[in-house]
Write a structure and sequence with these properties.
Strand order of the largest sheet: 1-3-4-6-7-8-9-11-12-15-16-17
Structural class: mainly beta
Largest sheet: 12 strands, antiparallel, barrel
Radius of gyration: 20 Å
Number of strands: 17
Number of helices: 0
Order of helices and strands: EEEEEEEEEEEEEEEEE
């Protein structure tokens, strides 16, 4: 189980210029995700995640400034990971894995939303295929991780389709004391232009960068508690057409050894 709260502090324009958001109009959101990871053999892991989202946003409706809230189930996420080289299996080679995932449009789309501020939107409305390649290193008490992935929508939502996406993430961490690990994470995400009924929309490209810290504590057999905080750095050119926000989250994990 994971929970993440976000507060928008501003946004990047299409030209990458940073703009502030008035505190009364800032988007606030919280997402709770219930997930399951399951081993399906020595090298294969399956996952399933179901999110629930609450969003609050201020704005003008008619002649009045209002604050609206909406909630609902988001898009389901399922997939598999295959470890081609297990972490630590070779002294000179990193662990190598690939993933293949599917985002199922189970959330409420913009076309289905009823609120004028769009706070009840909880999904993209598109069937999305995602894949990534991962390399992982360990040298006690340190570890490192690098991943490169891509996303593509294979079904339109009311004529709209997101552009091909790219995700890059770098992480490094260290065991501070027994069963407590701290890590730093840098990530970059980008999407090509959206399209409507097959025609690309000029200026709709998007990108963003994030930096954060995470802490994990294995406090009992099979149980771990995780916390994280990350931010989209408010610097020009780091993003386009995306919110600049800060996110704080926590998660509780339970693992069962079936071997």
């Amino acid at each position: 189980f994971d929970g993440v709260g976000r507060l928008a502090l501003g946004y990047w324009t299409n030209a990458g210029v940073v703009r502030d958001v008035h505190s009364d109009n800032a988007t606030r959101s919280a997402t709770a995700t219930l997930g399951v990871l399951m081993r399906a053999g020595t090298a294969t892991t399956l996952w399933f995640r179901a999110p629930w989202t609450l969003t609050g946003r201020g704005g003008a409706v008619g002649d009045h400034d209002v604050m609206r809230f909406g909630h609902g189930v988001g898009d389901l996420d399922l997939g598999a990971r295959y470890d081609w080289i297990a972490v630590g299996a070779h002294s000179r080679l990193p662990g190598v894995a690939t993933t293949l995932g599917l985002v199922v449009p189970s959330g409420r789309t913009t076309a289905q939303a009823s609120d004028a501020l769009g706070v009840d939107v909880t999904g993209r409305g598109q069937l999305i295929v995602a894949a990534s390649a991962i390399a992982e290193w360990t040298s006690v008490p340190w570890y490192g991780r690098a991943s490169v992935g891509g996303r593509v929508g294979i079904r339109e939502s009311a004529g709209w389709r997101d552009g091909i996406g790219v995700d890059i993430e770098l992480a490094a961490g260290r065991e501070l004391v027994d069963a407590v690990v701290m890590s730093a994470v840098l990530s970059w995400h980008a999407n090509a232009s959206r399209s409507y009924r097959g025609a690309a929309i000029s200026g709709s490209e998007a990108q963003s960068a994030r930096a954060g810290l995470a802490l994990a504590w294995k406090f009992a057999r099979g149980w771990s508690l995780r916390g994280q905080a990350n931010v989209a750095p408010p610097f020009a050119r780091l993003g386009r057409n995306q919110d600049i926000d800060v996110a704080v989250g926590a998660g509780l994990r339970f693992a069962v050894d079936t071997q």
